[in-house]
């Protein structure tokens, strides 16, 4: 059978007892016509394949170039070199795919992340991206495990929708109408009644509203899928297409919501620390090497592994929005005019404000609650003061907001008046309002941006480096 192979990660942990095994992978390096560093993506660590001099054809040896793919059968023996305990002494080598070493873009040297984004179809083959995407996989698996173990139902919410959950209006339209000569109404507007769905539709910005429908039947649900924002934000923390985890829970208030979100984040980090120790160690060393290039004052107090351990070991700080604004106003940062954006009650805090609270003031993740109603969405529960809503954001070191959520407004009359106040058409959301008409309950939920979570755990500085093929303004390559 062709694929009777053993993954290199498993081989490296095996005791050598002269057993015959078959491995397959790509050549990282080939030295002295004798030593092949072979990698199959299961780990960043290579298996050293030893070719005995004189036993292999010269024509074959010339084809063993960086990134050529090989099938190697041989005997597993103790390694004589440092850094590995096993070598594979080759008895047969088959080249599965040649690689022109001169044309191959990934030469065995250090490449910039910007360059690697231009060849995103090949960047998985580097150590950095190998580690990042194995961590991403582990986080995705841990998300499902966490909610499954708690009895949540995984609900697939629609990607094409007629509603705008955020009320932001920055959406990608979905249509089969022609770009030129689209049918129009008597008022001269595009006649969407002739479109595929018979109405205007767009790519979802959130599965939350549909998630609430599930929560009011199953008790607790979660969604985990792609979401889309047509924001023209060309920053290191924004994507036009990204993944969101959105749990919705009946019979939860804002405090229950915050407790679950904190437990969830700590669980994910703990899972990766346990299952991807090698990858995190590599990423930690990569960041330490980067830090050495910075002035002493700009270096982080904690390395990546220390930061992750700190988040796992400590309770998150909990403050109200009003307390957060007071802290910012009293800060020397504000008094010395170091903030680019103004600070006053009622503002939507910017990333610089959030990061100050987390990184300078508390030095740990912070849960901020009770935001002004005017800067939050219509579905968030109005507090008794009439000025704030039971909203909750979790702010993390390095990236600012990582979770956004709230207790949802379960009171029909309050919800409809909020919708009217904010210009949200009630007739289009009749189905959403039905959950408040028929057995309404206190309920809550939050959204965790998956890529921001991956960024936090891997320490990568740019969100484009934690998703396989980033979609950003003017960029939809691959």
TrEMBL record:
Keyword Ligase: yes
Gene Ontology MF: a single term: nucleic acid binding
Entry keyword Zinc: no
Subcellular location: Cytoplasm
Keyword entries, A-Z: Aminoacyl-tRNA synthetase, ATP-binding, Cytoplasm, Ligase, Nucleotide-binding, Protein biosynthesis
Matches recorded under Pfam families: tRNA-synt_2 (PF00152), tRNA_anti-codon (PF01336)
Catalytic activity, as annotated: tRNA(Asn) + L-asparagine + ATP = L-asparaginyl-tRNA(Asn) + AMP + diphosphate + H(+)
A GO cellular component annotation in the UniProt record: cytoplasm
Domain Aminoacyl-transfer RNA synthetases class-II family profile, chain residue ranges per copy: 133-470
GO BP of this protein: asparaginyl-tRNA aminoacylation
Record text on subunit structure and interactions: Homodimer.
Name of this protein: Asparagine--tRNA ligase
Taxon lineage: Bacteria, Pseudomonadati, Bacteroidota, Chitinophagia, Chitinophagales
Gene name of the encoded protein: asnS
């Amino acid at each position: 059978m062709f694929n009777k192979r053993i993954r290199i990660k498993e081989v490296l942990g095996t005791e050598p007892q002269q057993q015959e095994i078959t491995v397959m992978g790509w050549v990282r390096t080939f030295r002295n016509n004798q030593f092949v560093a072979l990698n199959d993506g299961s780990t960043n660590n290579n298996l050293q394949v030893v070719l005995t001099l004189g036993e292999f054809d010269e024509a074959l040896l010339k084809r063993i170039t960086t990134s050529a793919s090989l099938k190697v059968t041989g005997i597993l023996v103790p390694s004589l070199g440092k850094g590995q305990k096993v070598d594979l002494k080759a008895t047969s080598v088959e080249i599965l795919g040649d690689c022109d070493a001169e044309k191959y873009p990934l030469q065995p040297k250090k490449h910039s992340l910007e360059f690697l984004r231009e060849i995103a179809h090949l960047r998985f083959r580097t150590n950095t991206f190998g580690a990042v995407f194995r961590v991403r996989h582990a986080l995705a698996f841990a998300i499902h495990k966490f909610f499954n173990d708690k009895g949540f139902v995984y609900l697939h919410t629609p990607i094409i929708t007629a509603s705008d959950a955020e009320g932001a209006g920055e959406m990608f339209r979905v249509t089969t109408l022609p770009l030129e000569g689209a049918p129009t109404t008597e008022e001269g507007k595009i006649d969407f009644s002739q479109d595929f769905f018979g109405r205007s539709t767009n790519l979802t910005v959130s599965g939350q509203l549909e998630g609430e429908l599930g929560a009011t039947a199953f008790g607790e649900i979660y969604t985990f899928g792609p979401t889309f924002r047509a924001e023209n934000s060309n920053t290191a923390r924004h994507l036009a297409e990204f993944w969101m985890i959105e749990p919705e829970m009946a019979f939860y208030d804002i405090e229950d919501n915050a407790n679950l979100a904190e437990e969830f984040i700590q669980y994910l980090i703990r899972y990766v620390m346990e299952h991807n120790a090698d990858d995190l160690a590599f990423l930690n060393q990569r960041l330490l090497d980067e830090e050495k290039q910075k002035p002493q004052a700009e270096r982080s107090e904690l390395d990546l592994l220390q930061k992750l351990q700190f988040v796992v070991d400590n309770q998150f700080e909990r403050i109200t929005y009003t307390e957060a604004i007071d802290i910012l106003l009293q800060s020397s940062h504000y008094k010395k005019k170091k903030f680019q954006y103004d600070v006053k009650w009622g503002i939507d805090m910017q990333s610089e404000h959030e990061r100050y609270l987390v990184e300078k003031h508390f030095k740990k993740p912070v849960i901020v609650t009770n935001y002004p109603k005017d800067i939050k969405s219509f579905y968030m529960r109005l507090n008794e003061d009439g000025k704030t809503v039971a909203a909750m954001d979790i702010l993390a070191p390095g990236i600012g907001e990582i979770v956004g959520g709230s207790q949802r407004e379960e009171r029909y009359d309050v919800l409809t008046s909020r919708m009217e106040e904010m210009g949200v058409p009630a007739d289009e959301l009749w189905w959403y309002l039905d959950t408040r008409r028929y057995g309404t309950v206190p309920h809550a939920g939050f959204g965790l941006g998956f890529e921001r979570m991956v960024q936090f755990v891997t320490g990568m500085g740019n969100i484009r480096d934690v998703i396989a093929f980033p979609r950003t303004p003017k960029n939809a390559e691959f």
